[in-house]
Amino acid sequence: MKITAKQIADWADGKDAQAALPRYVRRLIHDVGSVTQVAMPAGDLTSQPGWDGALVSAAGNAWVPEGRSFWELSCEAQITHKANTDYDKRTRETPQNIRRASVYVAVTGRVWPGRAKWVAEKLGAGEWADVRAYDAGTIEEWLENTPAVKLEFGDEIGLTGHGVEDLGRHWRGWASQTEPQITPEALFVGREAERDRLLDATRKILDAGGSGLIRIRADSVEEAAAFAAASLASQPDSAAGALVVNEAAGWRFVDQNSSLKIAIAARPDAAGKPTVRPGTVVIVPYASGDMEGMSRGGAEGELAAMIALERPDVREFETALSSIGLDESDAKRLASATGRSWSVYRRRRSTNPAIRRPLWLDAPQAAALSTVCLLGSWVAGKPGDRAIVAELAGRPYEQVEADLRHLAQTDDAPILVIGEVWKAKSPLELLDLFGARITRNELDRFFQLALRVLSSPDPELELPDDQRYAAQIYGKVRAESGLLIRAICDTLIKLAVRGPSIAALAAGDIEGRVERLVTDLLSDATGERWLALSSQLPDLAEAAPMAFIRGIERSLAEANAPVLRLLTETGASSLIGRCWHAGLLWALERIAWAPERFTRVALLLARLSRTEIKGNWSNSPRSTLAGLFRSWLPQTAANLEQRIAALDALIGVAPDVASDLLLKLVDTRLDVASASNRPEWRDDDAGVGRGVSGEERDAMLVAVADRVVSSATGHPDRLVKLIEKIDVFDQARIAAVLALFDDFAKRETNDDDREKLRAALRQRIHKQFNYGQLKGVALARRLARLESLYEQLTPRDPVSRSAWLFADPWPQIPVRVREIDHLKRNEWIDRARLDALREIHEAEGWDGIDRLVTICSGRGNVGATLTKLALREEEIADWIVRSGAAFDEQSLQIGEVRGALCMCPTDQALRLVKQVLATADREGWTAKKVAHFLTLAEARTELLALVEQLGTEVEDAYWRCCHPRLWRSDTAEWHDHVVRRLLNAGRPKTAFLVCQYELEKVGPSLIAEMLEGLVSGVEADGVLPDLYSIGVALDRIEESGRIERDRLVRLEFALIRPLGLDAQRHARTFFEAIMSDPKLFTELICLVYRSTGAEPDEPSSEEAEAAAAIAWSALHSCQRSPGTMPDGRIDPESCVRFVDDARALCGEAGRLRSCDSSLGQILAHIPPDEQGSWPPRFLCDLLDRPELEEMRDGFSIGIMNKRGVVRRSLDEGGTQERELASRYREFARPLAGTHVRVFDLLEKLASHYEKDGLREDLDRRLRREGR
Predict the structure, then answer these.
(1) Of 22, 557, 717, 1150, which one is least surrounded by beta carbons within 10 A?
(2) CATH number among 3.40.1350, 3.40.50, 3.30.420, 3.30.1380, domain 159-356
(3) How confident is the model at residue 670 (pLDDT cuts 50, 70, 90)?
């Protein structure tokens, strides 16, 4: 292809030339490869003021000056006049010092006869360091030396090279076939790393001065080539020397133009014999499944780099679609419909009919796609899945898979193979393209299989609730994979949604068949079937919404309402708990998007709301109901009028549920929402659910406010909740709410209801006083009405009127307390309580006090206040006696007695205790009753002395039943005394609880006794201390050095299991002992393992099993290596000697293999030597012994186990495992010629991690596919 000056000049005469010329000159400049700064606006930016171009180049060529240069470009016909005008203007505006160091360049797209004369004149003026002028002839020469730009310019003027095209033309040919068009930025979303890898690989090859091949793989060959073209075009330096070869003849053009550095083959067959001369990179595209193609043609050779373009994940693809102009909901739906494939998107959205029909549709093996259409995905390694596939296809599974493997290798293949998983890449597109070929017999078989699979019971439900999380371990799993079951449900949706638009399927009433299937599944469904279908309910609901709604309504109408098993089966939220009802709620959310189903779904949710759900699950019918009606983010396509009508229907049918809903909706402060479940394939949610206008939000809030006020009339419980929301109302509605309180106050109502309303007002007054912004007159005006109502609602009964003061240890008082200290607040509360209690006592005597105690739930506040009244202590003592039947029952009265004895001064408490004891002596109380009474007082030194005076029987009974939660030390000897007495009473757990936070005040010997008591099993009903405190206690006696080593070893051995992961840190003496004494190590081995060849023993005793379990934990948690010195370094001789001695002893005991395996796992924790080598040389010598095969296996297990818990992002794959494989190969490399067995061990470890990495990669790909 030759471009002449005349052709350039003719082009310059066009209207678009002025805007396009800077772009081509800029591309030509970039070919230099040494431009460090460039500014040359093109297109619409050419009208901006300033230079047409300014650049700095470290090195020049025949056209680009070295250093700084300024450019003026024009296509005007008056060439010399325009050049002079530009020159004079720029010379005046540019300082002399800059001109003397810069080159002025004038460029015209026309032929300029006077160019040389003009240059001579300007040079003679001496105003610039140099002056140059280029015309169409100069540009012709420049283009001849820059073939990639020449191709692009040739395309601009209607000339093309044979077998080649520029990057821009190739990109436009691929991207412009759709509506909306694909942009490079969209194609790069989620693939930025691959783009950078391609550019880096290209740059490295060119910088090295060599040649190379780069293979790039995508869903289709065309997508891979387009990606390469877009990537190179994004870098001007790369684009200047790159083109696309679309025919084999184009390689001649590449060969003849040495300035071409990068050639993209448009197809693999175009790269059959590529030119790979020095300094050239060839990029060859392939389809993902074309393994055969990648082994021939241009991709031959071990050194060819491979860049795989994975499809973006669903969020990335949605983002990309939104960036090219699609609505968010359409983007979400299209991301699913296209399988996140740009190749499929291009076909589905193509404006060119020829692109819409893929070649694989006419392949002989395409008949197998019927099975893929109907099943969607399955696991080939699951026998149940293979049987379903074969039954549906009507032929052996092997034949189906053979056909599918052929199709998977085609360009833009319709199916994916990820490990053992087969999956349709774009299920909806496949149904559209292939649905007409599905036969009636195939449909009949599919619906029979679907009904059979979905109606089969779930074996997991045969297990108790607390074992279901381990259903796979117990073998209680379905014959079919969960992937296949979900895919069947997904197919039902696709058939119902898209089937009617496919004539062959519509003729067979496909939508009706799906509805009948769902009806059959849910008709007379038992609770077990609802549970078995819990995960599939959202898909079944979308497949046949009305059949699903009718199924729930029929189930709720039955006597035992089987569908409610989904709610009642849900247990407490925990790590192994399961939210069985979540699927039901998601199903209702999914079908509530359609306005015609909205009210019906809302009424169903109201009925479900009345069933109690255990646990703190955020998913609940009430939260779903709130999400549907939320004023600012309604999760439905129903309009405002329809939502309000549904709300009125709800108020009429379920007023209690509606009232709670209204209260939730009316207050949008701190409201948090999450998106509801959206349809997979229906478009009910198109364009809605992302928020509403401010006007619509306000209109909904007004409707809700009016209804929440009217619904509270005559309902004190609703009024209580309503007053809490009063700040969200306007003045008119605030007045309406307070009028409801006023009306209630004027009626004859019971004190309980009046106190409910009064408590709500008190809380409101308290908050307004202490946390509101108003002060002074404004505050008084705001509170006047509330305080008036508060007084009007005062109960007539003094106990009801004052109970609130005693029921809460920190009551919200209706006075300003925020600005005063806590002591004054407490004084106010104490004074109010004292006045209230005095009033009650004066009005009703001790009967009133007892009634108050009953109301106040035994918090102790009544008793604490009672001792402050001006009452004789004899009266209080008599009340104490009357309140306790045996003093060992947790009654309300006992709580108040405790409050009286603990909150009064010590001397008063002792006097009361003595008076009660005098009564006890007269009435002949048992020692047990006396002891229980004494436990209600605080265990101060004076009380403990009194206990000792009451005789041995009472004293022993006291120490057997006392409660340490009330105890505080008041002398230095108190702890030792209390701990000793509790230990003597057989209560080591209680003794530990008394001092666990003050262990430094207790002697090491007593701590050891407490710990020994903990492990001995005494005080079975005692509270076990937390593990942290046990660890602190062990550290205390370890550091004291005052406990015999053997005793400490035995104690730490018993605590190994309770300490768990912290055992290594706290049980230091024990682990040092077992790693320095081979006999002790052998004892542990013998406890855990049976001798080789021994017959099974009789069932072990509980003690022997417990000892074996502890020994196993000790061996497997041991991270201290034999030969460890105090500074942490390893003494090689001691280590090897320990291993040899331990092996000898264990060999005599018949447990050599167990010994070797355990030692190998422990030796895996040995650190690198002082030179950083690992394993250390002495360990390599040891492990390389031929007879230590078991030890080497144990060493491998130890290495894998010490890795611990692994954390990874969902999209990470096997990167961590590959890093480990590389690390262990590095360790192995120096040992290949010296320690062959250790070398083999480390190589196997590396291979193991590589396989793990591949498995993680497969899991990552499956997660991206939505598995």
Answers:
(1) 557
(2) 3.40.50
(3) confident
